[in-house]
Amino acid sequence: MTTAFWIITIVTLLGALLAVTLRNLVHCVLSLILFFLGIAGHYFLLRADFFGTVQILIYIGAVAVLILFAIMLTRNVTGEEGPREILGMKWWSGAVIAALVAGVLLHAVRRDATAAVASSAPKPLSVADLGRALVGDWVVPFEGMAVLLTAALIGAVVIALEEVQRRR
Amino acid sequence: MEAVYHFLRSLRWVGDWPQPVLWALAFAVPIVFVVVVFPLIFAYTTLVERKALGRIQNRLGPNRVGRWGILQPIADGLKLLIKEDIVPAKADRVVHTLAPVIAVIPSLMLFTVIPVGSGLIPVNLNIGLLFVFAISTGSVLALFMGGWASRNKFSLLGAMRSVAQVVSYEVPMVLAAVVVVMAVGSLSTVDIAAAQAGGWANVTNWFVFRPWGFVGLVLFLMGAMAESARTPFDLPEAESEIIAGYHTEYSGFKFALFQLGEYLAAIAMAGVTVTLFLGGYNGPGCELPVVGKLIGMGWFFVKLFAMIAVIIWIRGTWPRIRVDQLMAFAWKLMLPMAIINLIVAALYHYIEPKLLAWVVSAGLLVLSWATLSSLSAPPHLQKRTYRYWA
Amino acid sequence: MTLTLGHYLGMSAILFAIGLAGALTRRNAINVLMSIEIMFNAGILNLIAAWHFRYFESLTPQLFAVFAVTIAAAESALGLALVIAVYRHYRSVNVEEMTALRG
Description:
The complex is a heterotrimer of chains A (168), B (390) and C (103).
Chain A: H1 2-21, H2 25-45, H3 49-74, H4 89-112, H5 127-135, H6 139-167
Helix pairs in contact in A: 1-2, 2-3
Chain B: H1 2-10, H2 19-56, H3 72-82, H4 93-110, H5 128-136, H6 138-149, H7 153-184, H8 189-194, H9 211-227, H10 239-242, H11 252-277, H12 292-317, H13 323-350, H14 354-375
Chain C: H1 5-25, H2 29-53, H3 60-90
Helix pairs in contact in C: 1-2, 2-3
C-alpha cells in the first residue's frame, strides 16, 4: 500500500503542478484530468470505492469536460496564451503566499495527526448504507443539495443566456 | 474470478496443482478472455456491419478476401499496420499520440463488469453500474484530444460536437438505467442479472417486459449509441459534413485504434443493455446444474449479437440528425421521458396486483410519450414540390 | 513504514498550496477556476482520509464528502457560466482586465 501511495502521490502532485504552470490552456486541463485521476486512485486506495468512481464520473466526466467546453466557447481554441511573465512580481508574491500557507498547514499536520494509523482494515462502505443515510438522518441537507443544484442549473442558464437575449 | 478458480479446482488433472499457480491462472483467464475475445468480436462485427450495410444499400459488401469476405478484417488490420503513420506538422505531437490509446483503454475496462454467465464476471464490483458510467465518459476525452491536437478545423468541429453530445446524452442515459437500480436495489451488475432470473422459462422476469423496462431500454440504447457516436448520432465524425471529424488527421494503426475503441464501446454498451434490461445470461435452460452456466453464456452472446445487429440495422436505416435536433431530442424528449419513467417505475413497485400495475404504468407511459412528442413536434411543414429542369 | 493520516494530510496541504498559488498567479479566469478545483479536491481528500484512518465506522465523513462534491460541481458550472458571460462582455477572460463595475 505504501508503494502505491507514493506512486499515486507523485502522479497527483505532478498533475496539479502542471495544471497550474503550463502555458497552453488545453494542456492545463489534460494535466488537471491527470490530477483528478490521481485523487480517484487515492480514494480507491483508501477503500472508498464509491468515491473513486464518483470522482471519475463527476470531475472527469463533467467538470473537466465543462472546462474544455468553456475554453472552446471563449478563447482562440488552440489555447495558446501570451508570453509568460514568470518570475515577475505577481508570480513571486503568489508563490510566497502559497509556500507560507503550505508551511502553516504542514506544521499543523506534523503537530497533530501523524500518529493516526488505521486501527483495523476498514471494509468498503456499502452504497446502500450511504443511500439510506441520505434519505434518513441526512434528508434535510440532501434536499438542500437538490435545491442548490436546481438553483445552480437555472442560474447558469440565465447567466449564460443573458447577453443573447439582449442582442435580439 | 472465483468461479474460474473453483472450476479449475474441480478439474481432475489441474485440481492438485499448487494454489498460487491456480490463482494466477484464475487471474489470467478473465484478462485473456476480455483482451482476446472481445477484440475478435470487434473484428468480425466490422465485417458483419459492412456486409449488412451493403445489403441494406443494395450492394454486396466485401466478398474478395476469402469466401464471403471472411478474411477481410485480417486484411484490413494488416493494411492499417503497414501504413505510414502521419502526424501533421502543426499538430500537438504528444496529445495526438495519446488520444488513440486513451480511446481504447476505457472501452476495454467496460468489459470487466459485464457478467457473461452466472458467476462469470472478471470483477464483481458492488458499484458496477456506476463504474460503467464513470468509465464510459473517458471516451469523450479521447475524441476531444484527437480532434483538438490535429490542428484542423474539421477535427476541432468534430471534437466540439462530441463533447456537447456526450454531455447532453449522459444525463438521460443514466436516468434510464436508474430505473433498474431502483427495481433491484443494487448497483452490482451481478445482482442485476440475477434479479431477472425465474419466471416462465427464465424469460418473463426480464426487465424489458415491464413497461418502465421497455421505455428504459429504448432510452438507454439511444443514449448509449449517442455516447459511442454510432450512426444516427455520429455527428462527431460525420463524413459528409466535416470529413470524418476528429480522426481526419489519423492514419495507420492510430486510426485503427480509434475504430477499435469506438466499436468496443458500442459492443460493451450492448452488453450493458443486455445485462440491464434483457436478462443478462438468463434464458431457457440456464438453471440446469452442470451445463447451465454454458447455456447461460450462450444466451448472453446470442442477445449480445442480437443487440449488435439492431445497432447495425439502425445505422443502415436512419439518417444522421442535425445538431439542433440532437440537443432538442436529448433535453426536450429523452430527459423528461426518463424522469417520468422513474416515477412510473416507483408506482409499479407499489401497485398490487401486478397486472393492474402493468396496465396503469403502460398507460401512463404511452400518455406521457404522446404528450411530449406532440409538444416538441416540429411546426407543420407545407407540402413542397421540387421542379428540376434546365 | 506504515501510512498514517499525516501522509494524506500533508499531501493534501501541498496540493492546496499548489492550487492557491495557481489561483493567485494565473491571469486566465478558466485557469483560476481550475486552481480552485484543485483546492476543493485537496479538501475532500482530507475528509475521505479522515474517514479511513479514524472514523470508518461512521458515515458522516463520506456524507460530508458527498455534499462537498455536489457543491463543487455546482460551483464549477456557475463559474464557467460566469466566465462565458464575462467573455461576451469584455471579449477576454483575463481577470486583470475585469475592472469596470458597470455592466
